[in-house]
Structure formats: C-alpha cells, structure tokens
Write a structure and sequence with these properties.
The complex is a heterodimer of chains A (286) and B (331). Chain A contains 14 helices and no strands. With 286 residues, chain A is mainly alpha-helical. Chain A has a domain of 184 residues: MetI-like fold (Orthogonal Bundle), CATH 1.10.3720.10. In chain A, helix 4 packs parallel to helix 7 and helix 7 packs antiparallel against helix 10. Chain B has 331 residues and is mainly alpha-helical. The relative contact order of chain B is 0.11. Classes of the chains: A mainly alpha (286), B mainly alpha (331). At the A-B interface, helix 1, helix 4, helix 5, helix 6 and helix 7 of A face helix 1, helix 2, helix 4, helix 5 and helix 6 of B.
C-alpha cells in the first residue's frame, strides 16, 4: 500500500484511541498506590495526593495496613506469588522442552496425522470448566488433588499445542540443507538437531518460552477448581480477596493485580514481534 | 513429580537407542538427502512421542472419562463414578429439550461473541489501516496498543469491575457528559451488565485483531496495488477491491482464533458479574462451572460441555473450510 502521512483528523482519532487503551492501565496503577483513605472516596480520586507503597507491603505482611486503621486482610499473598512462579516456570520449561522435540519431529519427519490439527482445536475449544471435572475425579483417585504436580501436568498439556506449533513454524523457517550438511559431516540425526537446529532457532525458542509463560501465568479456571489449601496462584488469590471482602480492599487488590501484570507486560513487549505467530499456532508469521 | 516427567522418560530412551544405531550407519547412508528413510521416521516418532503421551494422559483420558460420565447420573455424593447408573442420552435430551437456562446461556454467549467479534474486527482493522500510514513514534505506539492483550484476563475483569463501580470513573465521565443526575448501576441492570462485559472483552482483545490484521496488511503484495493505482483506481477502490480480498484468509484466521477463545468466556465475567444480575451475563462456561462446582451436577455439566464442543466444532469447521491450508499449515 502506498505510504501516506497522518492527517490531523486521523491523528486526533489515534490519540483518542490511545487514551481509551491506556486509561484502564493508568487506573489500576494509580489505585495500587493510593493510601486507604483514597480507596473508596466518592467521587473517585484519579491521582492520589500522597502515593504510597503500603498496599504492596500489605500483600506480604497483612498487618502492615493496620497503621492506617484498616483491618481485614486475612491472608498474605506470598504463597500465591510463589505458587504462581513454581507452577508457571516448571510447566513452561516442560511444555517448551516436550514441544521442541515434537516440533522438530513434525517439521522434519512429518510424523503427525492429518487429523492432528482438529484434535488440537477440539482440545482448545472444550469448555475448561467441564474438562476440570474429570480432573477432579482422576486426581482424587491418584492423590494429586490440591497438588502442584497435578496443576503443572494440566498446564503442560494445555500449552503443548501452542509450544509445539509455534516452535514448528520456527523450525520450518530453517532450510533443511543446514542440518543435512551437518549429517554429511558425520553427525547423527539427533546430534545434528541438538547442535545445529536448536541453536539456530534460539530466538524462536526464547519467544516461545515467554509466550508459554504468559499463558501459564494467566491461567485461572483450573487453578480455581483444583486448589484448596496447599496450592494457590495469583489469579486465584485475587479472586479470593475480591470475594472475601466484597471487593472493598481496592488498594491491596490493585497492588496484587499490578504485581501479576508487570512481568507479563514486560514479557509481551519483549516478544511482540512473535505474538501473532504464537496466538495463531504459527499460521501467521511476522 | 510422578506424572509429567514420566512420559518424557520412555521417549528419550528410545531416542538414545536410535542415536547409537544411526551413528554407525548414517555416514554411509546414500539416501540421506532424498525422502526421509525409515530410520528418520523412527527418530521422528521418538521425538513426538513425549508430546503424544502427555496429550493422551492429560487430555484424551479426561475427555473420555467426561464422555462416559455424561451418560450417567453420577454426582460426588453417590460414591464411585463406576457405580453410577447408566442413563443413556437422558442428560442430553434434558439439556436440549427442557433446560431453558442452558439454551439462554448458549444464545447469550453467541450474541455476546457476535457483537464482540464484530466490534473487535472493526476497531482492529481501523487501527491497522491507520498504522499503514507513516508517523512519528510508530514503534512506541504499536507497543502501547498491544498492551491490553498482555494483561491477565482475571486482572482485566478486576480493572473493569472497578471502573464500572457506581462511584467509579466511568460514571464520573458520564456525569460530565450527561449531567450529574445520571448515576448508572452497571452491575444491577441486566442490559448495562451485558454492555460492561462487552466493553471489557472488546478492550481486552481488539489488540489481537489489530496485530493479526496489521501483519496481514503488511504482507499484501505491492504490485497489484500499484497496478490498480496506475489504472486509475481511487484509494477506496484499491482498499475494497484489491487489498481486502487479499486479506481474507488472515481475517478468517483472526475470527477463528478469537471465536475459539470467546466461546469459553469465563475469567472476565467471573470477576465482573459472576453471571449476574440474575443470569443476565451467564455464559455457557459459567453455567457449566456453576452446575459442576456449585450444584455438583457433574454428569449433567459434562453432557452440556460435549454439546458445546459439538456446536463449536461445527461452527469453526464452517469458518475454517476456505482457509484450512493457511491455518496450521497442512504440508
């Protein structure tokens, strides 16, 4: 398409769209640094006069907020933060490792049937509430209820289609001749893949890892129905805070929300060139 | 840790075995550059095996259990699943014939999806077309516009729950426009709650349409566009007659990807309204969740889920047929 400049009218429209997109982010960040007196003020306060980090402190030390005369934070979010980290990091590593070998296998040896895409899509479309039901039953029979192992197993399976197909699209971009040259030099197939293929797609591997991390870190439903006392993740803790206090602890909840979204937004910016590829199972490359 | 690494073990052992045997033969293998020989197929199988095993254990088996369950009258208070009475298609006929709450949840999800996807498409395409023009700070603005889709659905739901409070900023802004007497109770009125859900969803996922459509626009070949311009087409004609037809596969991919996710709409609604007021914003996913985990009608919920899956598969199949090759790249 011919490149044109932005007319003033279009520039105004673009600026308006930008405000709409950024306002909710602005709001949650501002709420997270409001002192308790500003939380529920009416009319709502947009920018706190005395910004504070007390809300973040309260997440890890529930009594910290008492200096403002506010009680009612029953639980620290420490366990949820560690739980989220443990589940997301482990599941991401496993999903990417398994997906990497599947990707090379499918891309180089064509070892998948033509019905595979349909199976993957079906798995993605099945309402998670319903797939959680058999998990509750199976896990209670094998002793994995309320355990990180069970949660991680589900996360790996749920993100495996994404990691496999995203990585496959990176392997597909690589000419076969490079590996074949290494094989002619006397390397075995597996050695050629380990020393040639994988190092050459390390950029894609990095992007895929962050993308899978985003998916795992965001997951809510499975964690909600499979966690009781041992297991907790940040999204579940956020929902618990809102339920337990009818949502009146605005500042503390907002602090947890900000804590949850900062790593994801950072990861997202880092791999923004590959987001389309990840979201579309490698169908769209950019 | 006895589940996830388990499947990996056998797969890797097979690979190691293959390395030893192929190291002896491959240097002399003359068919190396030709079609993959039998040995290659075996190592290929070994490579995809761990993934297949994980999918089988953690996806296929639970699906089969759920399928069996949907033909029984099981609930957790009645002991083991295998003692439950087999009731045939009773759950399914109940859902299809008598359960109006299910019917309305399906229709509601379809309506909300249709409205959301249309709005996301229009906004995303407009934004993508704007980004085809040249202006300063474009890379920075590109990142800024992608921000919403990187935020967790639960957090997005929570943010908009705050924004739509009766004393919240949305009402403050509306008061400036409509006068101070207008105080909307967003979560107490059915139509307003639906609007809140749609606004949230559109804000969250318009960036995905923008991203996919922009990469599609960038890939439209230049020569047909130049030819059309030289032949005297005006910009409007160029866009609708040359650019848009080329963009069709990308548009369908975007719709399929989003449709797959939005029929499962749960997290945002859970945080915003829990399906309320009444059942005004109850999506199918939320209904199944309530059936299974509030009312403990697990078998019935499983049946509902399979009906949703069948419907969704049919719908996506229709959408997908014209672009099957672009999506998931058939070899």
């Amino acid at each position: 398409m011919p490149e044109k400049k932005l007319t003033p009218l279009l520039a105004v429209l673009l600026a308006a769209a930008l405000v709409l997109v950024l306002f909710p982010v602005f709001w949650i960040v501002m709420t997270a640094i409001k002192p308790p007196t500003d939380w529920n003020a009416s009319p709502a306060i947009w920018v706190p006069s005395a910004p504070t980090l007390i809300n973040f402190k309260t997440l890890f030390d529930p009594d910290a907020i008492r200096e403002y005369g506010v009680g009612g934070v029953s639980q620290a979010a420490t366990k949820a933060v560690w739980g989220s980290l443990l589940a997301s990091v482990t599941a991401t590593a496993l999903s990417v490792a398994i997906g990497l070998f599947s990707a090379i296998g499918i891309s180089r040896y064509g070892t998948e049937s033509t019905s595979t895409p349909l199976v993957i899509l079906s798995g993605r479309m099945f309402p998670p509430a319903a797939i959680a039901v058999p998990f509750v039953i199976i896990f209670s029979n094998v002793g994995l209820t309320d355990s990180y192992v069970g949660l991680i197993a589900i996360y790996v399976a749920a993100t495996l289609p994404f990691s496999t197909w995203m990585l496959k699209s990176f392997v597909d971009d690589l000419p076969r001749e490079i590996e074949e040259a290494a094989m002619l030099d006397g390397k075995s197939r597996l050695a050629a893949h380990l020393t040639v293929t994988i190092p050459l797609i390390r950029g894609g591997l990095f992007a895929t890892t962050l993308f899978i991390f985003i998916l795992n870190w965001s997951e809510f439903m499975f964690a909600l129905v499979l966690s009781y006392t041992n297991v907790s993740t940040i999204p579940v803790q956020l929902a618990k805070y809102v339920t337990a206090t009818a949502g009146t602890l605005y500042g503390v909840q907002a602090a947890l929300a900000v804590l949850a979204m900062v790593p994801l937004v950072a990861a997202g910016y880092l791999i923004q060139g590959h987001l389309a590829r990840g979201m579309t199972f490698g169908a769209i490359k950019q | 840790m006895n589940r996830s690494p388990g499947p990996q073990g056998p797969g890797e052992r097979t690979e190691a075995h293959d390395v030893n045997s192929s190291a002896a033969t491959s240097p002399a293998d003359p068919a190396l550059t030709a079609a993959p020989p039998a040995r290659g197929e075996r190592i290929g199988l070994a490579m995809v095996l761990p993934g297949q095993i994980v999918s089988l254990l953690v996806l296929v088996i639970p699906l089969l259990v759920a399928l069996y369950m949907s033909f029984t009258d099981w609930s957790p208070t009645r002991g083991s699943l295998f003692d439950a009475e087999f009731v045939g298609f009773e759950n399914y006929s109940e859902l299809l014939v008598w359960d109006t709450r299910f019917l309305f949840a399906v229709l509601r999800t379809l309506c909300i999806s249709a409205v959301c996807l249309s709005l996301e498409f229009v906004f995303g395409l407009s934004l993508a077309v704007l980004f085809m023009r040249r202006f300063r700070g474009q890379p920075l603005l590109f990142s800024a516009f992608l921000t919403p889709m990187m935020i967790l659905p639960v957090v997005v739901g929570y943010i908009f729950w705050m924004l739509f409070q009766s004393g919240g900023p949305v009402n403050q802004i509306l008061a400036v426009i409509l006068g101070p007497d207008v105080v909307l109770e967003w979560f107490r009125s059915a139509p307003l709650a639906v609007v809140a859900v749609i606004v949230t969803e559109v804000w969250h996922w318009t960036p995905l349409f923008f991203l996919i459509l922009l990469s599609g626009l960038n890939a439209v070949p230049e020569n047909p566009v130049r030819a059309a311009v030289i032949l005297g087409a005006n910009p409007r004609q160029v866009f609708w007659r040359v650019v848009m037809p080329g963009l069709k596969p990308v548009i369908i991919v975007a719709f399929v990807i989003r449709a797959m996710e939005i029929i499962k709409l749960f997290d945002e609604v859970f945080m915003l309204t829990r399906g309320g007021p009444g059942s005004a914003t109850e999506t199918v996913s939320l209904y199944i969740y309530k059936l299974a985990f509030n009312d403990f009608q697990l078998a019935y919920g499983a049946a509902a889920a399979f009906l949703v899956l069948l419907g969704a598969l049919g719908l996506i199949h229709l959408l997908l047929t014209p672009v099957r090759n672009q999506l998931l790249e058939a070899r």
